[in-house]
Amino acid sequence: MSERLPALRVTDPAAFGRVAVLMGGDTSEREVSLDSGGNVLAALRSRGVDAQGVDGVPALLDALQAGRFDRVFNILHGGVGENGVLQGLLAALRVPYTGSDVLGCALTLDKIRTKQVWLSEGLPTPRYERLPRGADLRAAAQRLGLPVFVKPSSEGSSVGVFRVLAESDLAPAIAFAASYDGELLMEQMVRGDELTVGILGDVALPSIRIVPAGEWYDYHAKYVAEDTQYLCPGLEGEDEAALRALALRAFRAAACSGWGRVDVMRDRERGLQLIEINTAPGMTSHSLVPKAAGELGCDYAELCWRVLEQTL
Questions:
Q1: At residue 235, what are phi and psi to the nearest 5 degrees?
Q2: Which of 244, 259, 271, 292 could form a disulfide with 205 if both were Cys (CB 3.0 to 4.6 A apart)?
């Protein structure tokens, strides 16, 4: 294998001290976070790290005030785990933590603002409409042209995502919008390959091309189905190099650091199109960053170690 990750910075688990693995919380992604967190906790312990699971930010704050932990492995998906609130709290308490800082997290949890930054940097992303509460979804769809996706600007794990192929498909999205408090994003649908690139430090990991058995990669295909195909690397040669370079540039443009995942589509006519960034990627049995790291000879436990190393 020609590619290698840099050598580990430390080999003694005592260097990390007492580690809180933050998971769960009260967002729509709670169950996925608990799954990810349980796996991370077991992996760190398997390598001798003094790690304990903590469910949610209030419990973490109590534990930190009691002096029980030295650093935090954040695997809290969505909400305060990824919107900069947790990161600001930990920075104020001078507690090291995994992943991006306040700015990178706050920016990238908001898909609309992320796209605005990418566009200002001349990076490719599908055309979109910002839908504040009360917006006319039918009018927005007419302006963009069908097909489109409608999704919350600040949720993850395919929660509240609607695929609109025809005007008759708008009804469920309109009903959801009526009960949803936040902004929605309507985005031109990209027809082509679905790709994702994990970022670990300064390295863009081998891409993964996702081939769901159904028509699209929804929540079921991500976390339940056993017949979704994950092809790694997703592309070859110069195409793969260009994809990974774009993902790393997009990650940095959005002020992200540490580790994360950049989702990209390859349109048949427009080429690569940036979709979104995840600053606390899933670490479940179906998750993609561990699969990509494995292509470079980095198993799950080593990946967790490498992410935690970034807090030193």
A1: -130, 180
A2: 292
